Amino acid sequence: MTLDLVLRGGTLVSPQATRPVTIGLAAGRVVLILDAAESLAGREVRDLDGLLLLPGLIDCHVHCREPGGHAHKGTYASESRAAAAGGVTTMLTMPNTVPFCGSAAVLAAARECAQRSLIDYGFHFGVTADNLAEVAAAADLPVAKLYLNETTGITSPLADDAVLRRVLALGLPLSAHAEGDTLDWLLGLHARWGTGPLYVVHVALAREVAALRAAKARGQWVYAEATTHHLLLTDQDAARLGPYGDMRPTLKTAADQAALWAGLADGTIDTIATDHAPHLREEKESGSPPPGVPGLQTLLPLLLEQVAAGRLTLAQVVRLTAAQPAAIFGLCGKGAVAVGSDADLVAVDPTAATVIEHATQYTWPGWTPFDGWTCRGRVEAVWRRGELVYEAGQEPGTGGGREVTVARAHRS
After folding, report:
1. Catalytic site includes residue 130
2. Residues 300 and 286: beta-carbon distance below 8 Å
3. Is 387 a member of any domain?
4. Residues forming beta bridges with residue 353, ordered by sequence position
5. Exactly one of 4, 120, 246, 275 is catalytic; which is it?
6. pLDDT single digits (tens) 28-59
7. Within a domain: residue 407?
């Protein structure tokens, strides 16, 4: 076999071990992983000595504003470039587009738009009170989405026990925007009627962490997600940032933030995502600013800084942003650097610094709530299925992403 690319001497990070390796790639997949001292020949050989090698990150919670009336905020083409620059090689996008992605017709339109993505992608299919047949027909997608608290453009029709009983009985993976009392209610319904996994997005309150910890202790099939902004910003930052620090859920107290970190430490929280939500500056500075902040490009640099600060380990970063997202949503070939896996790889220089600035953001709106932050660690190169899509100091590529395939997870 002729290898397309050999990556020599990088230190491979997995949830289980860290070791120097030489990796051979062919036809978009990892085909060989050898000790660093081993020699391989390929069409291209790249020396990664001194660099860390991570699996490409999976962001489970991304808002691309296509198809429809909000495409001016950010497209699959634009936002995927920001993702690649942040080490993200797969994203799962949300359905609260205009029109709402809760029908076969809108899903088809989303798929057409997504063909311009630089990274691989999958879709959340939106659940309403009257589209359960279409939800069941979309079982090949990673997950369906429940909006149970009001967010941008959504007032849920689902706050009804009878409707939720029917949804939960479908047995499909469900992600849910459910805050505070609503989360308590949903967990109670899931305990009674749930036949599939429940993934709770952007957990923000200490009481929500406690409720999820208790649900897991009872044996419920539930997962939890935290976002970088809730982990690293509080209501004090919201006062400083004004509309640029407004999102749903809103930023919470330092005590709530501490509970999130405790939930990461004890396994209550399973993933870290961004809830990437692009809005233009003029919209944020208007009389009615929409909630939401960009986050794709800053995801890995911010987490690398937490590693440098001793709050996370590299193994935890890989588990929370790659291995567990792939397992939870059944994403074939994703989440690990292993023989046969997709060659989604990120090379990181742990000694270099990343200065986060508005001017260097590839997201269409061109701003970030983390402007001015310095992070210890820099994304040097990113490969999506063996193709170089980003290199530090250069513009990200364009196009070439494809939809993920799903192998439905079963509870062990």
Report:
1. no
2. no
3. yes
4. 376
5. 275
6. 999 999 999 898 999 999 999 999 999 999 99
7. no
